[in-house]
Each structure stands twice: as structure tokens, then as C-alpha cells.
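Q: What structure does this chain adopt?
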Amino acid sequence: MKTIFAVILIVSLFMLLYIWITKRLGFAWLTRLGLHIVLAALGIYVVNFSGLLTEVYIPLNPATIGTVLVLGLPGVVLLLGLKLTMI
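A:
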């Protein structure tokens, strides 16, 4: 079973390298990803320390930042709604 996973990992690595070399993606996607992560953390930080909802605190962890990273600002609203229904 471990060898199957190792083969899948190696094949996927070579496929990613092939796409990276042929498409000339560069490292611009890393800067955009970093910018989106910072903006997601900033959105959660603003909600936590704005004072509008004093009983709500959304922790800054990879799960919450990932949710906001994928969904954008509606992800912050989703986390607020989940937090308010769980209280």
C-alpha cells in the first residue's frame, strides 16, 4: 500500500513540474496566494476586534483562514453565523 501511495506521489510531482515548466507559471501565484491569506486573516481580525459583536470571537487558525480564503468575505459571515448559532 505504501508503494502505491509513493508512486502516486511521484507521478503527481512529475505532472506538476511538467505543467509548471510548459505553462511558464512562475512564482506569481505564490504572491497572490500570500496576499489572499493575509486578507483572509485581516478580515477575521477586523471582525474580532471591531467591537460590533462583543460576544463573538473567531480564532485565527488554519481552518478558519482556509474557509475565508476559499469563500472570501462570505466565509467570514459563514463563520459568524456558525459561531452565533453555536453559542
